[in-house]
Design goal:
The chain has 238 residues and is of the alpha/beta class. Helix content is 47%, strand content 11%.
Amino acid sequence: MAELDIDALVFDVLGTLVDEPAGLRAGIRALDPSLDDAGTEPLLLLWQRHIEREQRRVLDGDRPYLAGDALDREAARLVAGAAGVDDPAAEAALALSARRLPPWPDTVAGLARLAERFPLIGLSNASRTALLGLNAHAGLRWHQALSAEDARAYKPDPEVYRLAVTVSGLPPERLLMVAAHAWDLRGAQRLGLRTAYVARPVGDPPTASDRFDLYADGLADLADQLDTRHGRKRSARG
């Protein structure tokens, strides 16, 4: 197996390291405790479709840039209205649930293991403020956490991935982008980053035409593969 020459790892956060739907479901149920699964799922889908649509409108130039936490407030307003809840405080609490997302069971230990050998960079579509809350709530360990807000864009715009290239001071091909979303990895590939797909229940699986450098079942599997592909001689740089 060929050696993979990389100097830092760049991680997607939402969906890859934290279970975004689980956190949003909890927020929706807190909004209306009478909701069962059948009532919660359409509201979750309403939230997700709003965020996806509005981020796409920003990318397409159909809407001026708006940070992720502002989009979360819009989504919370839509969901509260659909649920028949007219309570500004409850609506605000629902918006903040987007910052209280649980980590996947292997996330914290996996990041700690990988951080022993590589600098870790978080790269998220979440706003700077939301990313701070996400990191603290989920116990995510970074050497640097970057928000797409700094590029005033959203992934997969190349300017978002360029943030990691600039901060690392490395050529793109020395960075490994890790994500559970094939669309995210394709965006990183377009800028020249190496790519690793990590399977998650809520991710965007690769298609038959995708060609990523690594495919992993989780962070432990990713670390094992990097031990083999990259060799154990490297230690993390500060």
